[in-house]
From TrEMBL:
Family: Belongs to the intradiol ring-cleavage dioxygenase family.
Protein name according to UniProt: Intradiol ring-cleavage dioxygenase
Record keyword rRNA-binding present: no
Family annotation (Gene3D superfamilies): Aromatic compound dioxygenase
Length: 212
């Protein structure tokens, strides 16, 4: 009987410690990056095998500007490439709308089908092929590309949108208001053949609330 009581006590302590560890991890995850509406969409890649390169639907669509977005994801030191990091992007089409097919589920009902996911390799590099988005029909803000990041040991959090330096709606006030989450999201486009090239490096945790 004494042995049974001892075994029960050990199991109880072990279970309690594990539960405490899980609660601690959950508490940390809830605070990194602050609130993030729609960050759950980073998990909506389904059965797709993620790689460092993704081509979004409508890439090469006639009448649109083809865009290549590339860069390196670094760890917090800004030097060491970060492996196994998922990036999720979505944006408007050439009309300034988030296009739908009508059968969307989850966050695709708001984000549309122009979205993609990558997972970085050992060198931290990433590349998206897509089309250049247009500003909303209301022209209330510059054209942009939303981006969310998911590290292996962190919850998903959002980064500063990609903005284009040549956008006439990109005012000095908007430039000055940027939080530079993950580093600056402002990119200058370079022409390479029939591609517009945008390069942005990302530093994990840079200007992210609650990041250790």
């Amino acid at each position: 009987m004494k042995k049974l009581r001892t075994l029960f006590t050990v199991l109880l302590l072990t279970t309690g410690c594990q539960a405490q560890d899980n609660r601690t991890k959950l508490d940390v995850l809830q605070h990194v990056g602050g609130p993030c509406e729609g960050c759950e969409a980073i998990h909506e890649y389904g059965e797709k095998t993620l790689s460092p390169v993704d081509t979004l639907p409508a890439f090469g669509k006639p009448g649109t500007d083809k865009l290549k977005i590339t860069g390196t994801v670094y760890q917090q030191d800004g030097v060491t490439p970060a492996r196994g990091v998922i990036l999720y992007i979505y944006h408007t089409d050439e009309t300034g709308l988030y296009p739908k097919r009508g059968n969307e589920t989850g966050w695709a009902r708001r984000h549309g089908y122009l979205r993609g996911w990558i997972r970085t390799g050992p060198d931290g590099r990433y590349t998206f092929y897509t089309l250049r988005p247009h500003t909303y029909p209301s022209r209330t803000e510059p054209a942009h590309i939303h981006i969310t990041v998911k590290e292996p040991d962190k919850n998903a959090y959002y980064l500063d949108d990609f903005l284009f330096d040549d956008d006439p709606l990109l005012s000095q006030k908007i430039r000055a208001s940027r939080a530079n989450r993950g580093g600056s999201g402002l990119v200058s486009l370079q022409k390479q053949g029939d591609l517009l090239m945008a390069e942005r490096d990302i530093i994990l945790g840079r200007n992210i609330p609650g990041y250790d």
